[in-house]
Amino acid sequence: MDLLLLFGDLFVTFFIIGVFTFGGGYAMLSLIQTQVVTAHHWISESTFTNIVAISQMTPGPIGVNCATYTGYEVLLNSGAGHSLAILGSATATFALILPSFFIVLTMVKFYEKFMGNSLFEGVMGWLRPAVVGLIGAAAIILMVDTSWTGLVPHLSVVEENFMDWKSWALFGAAMVASLKFKVNPIYIIIAGGVAGLLLY
């Protein structure tokens, strides 16, 4: 029965994330982190960071990959076996993409009708900066481990999520390679993986 409740919670949680996510996978990360780490305490902050790293390296949208890996990890942590953990992956993934399927289906039907509408353009204009904010929040979440103990700021704990100076060096090198030298992200990921093997 507990596992059935967990499957239900997993479905509802990722369905809600799917409904309220605008801007793609990176914008989705902060919502997933809030639900699975902070609200439900299904996985730890470090596990979530690892899941995001793996999701980014594997083919497919990062938000969907993250949901797939998270569903598996949540069931595995609850004591379920490998088969049920795979079902957890399928549940989280299906719940996440289901709202998008219906929303896109509806938008395709009405998109041409609302193109040029001032209200529609106004909503899109407000959504763009919100999406940028969600992506920025995802980046900050991956860099710091924040534990909120209440509404009082001085009671909240913010810890560095980067392990040591080597992690910061890799971060800086990747940033310079991407922004200054326009290196292909695939090469940066491969180089980061090789550097991680050598350094750790």
What does this structure look like?
With 200 residues, the protein is mainly α. The protein folds into two domains: 2-159, no CATH class; 162-200. It contains eight helices and two strands; from the N terminus they run ααααααββαα. It has a two-stranded antiparallel sheet. The protein is globular, with a radius of gyration of 19 Å. Mean pLDDT is 83; it is low at 148-156.
Any key phrases for this structure?
200 residues, mainly alpha, 2 domains, two-stranded antiparallel sheet, 8 helices
Main sheet characteristics: 2 strands, antiparallel
Order of helices and strands: HHHHHHEEHH
Strand order of the largest sheet: 1-2
- CA gyration radius, whole angstroms: 19 Å
Strand tally, please? 2
Provide the helix percentage. over 70%
The stretches of 5 or more residues where confidence is low (pLDDT under 50) are 148-156
Proportion of strand residues: under 5%
End-to-end separation in angstroms reads: 42 Å
* Whole-number tally of structural domains: 2
Annotation field: number of helices: 8
The outline comes out as globular
Mean pLDDT: 83
The class by helix and strand makeup works out as mainly alpha
Chart the SSEs and their pairings:
Layout: H1 2-20, H2 25-39, H3 45-57, H4 62-77, H5 82-114, H6 118-143, E1 144-147, E2 157-160, H7 165-179, H8 185-199
Antiparallel strand pairs: 1-2
